[in-house]
Amino acid sequence: MNPIQESVKGNIFMRIYRFYRDGFRSMTVGRYLWLMIILKLFILFFVFKLFFFPDILKRDYDDDRERAQAVRSALIDEDRNQYQQK
Fold this sequence. Notes:
With 86 residues, the chain is mostly helical. It contains 5 helices and no strands. It starts with a helix and ends in a 10-residue tail after the last helix.
């Protein structure tokens, strides 16, 4: 059996794995681009969350019960709801 016939047969997951493995192995510029993409995602999700999106509920309330009550009242109270029906 030649290599082409072997690649057609077999487990679909192994074929997909071999496809990506061989593709990444032959990349030159792509490795650098993937590194930049991963670094950018790290900055977006980790660093921004850390510095720009503090946990306000944890800061203002002591336990989970108080946090849950604050969220419920913010969702239910009509005077605090900005989308009131007029």
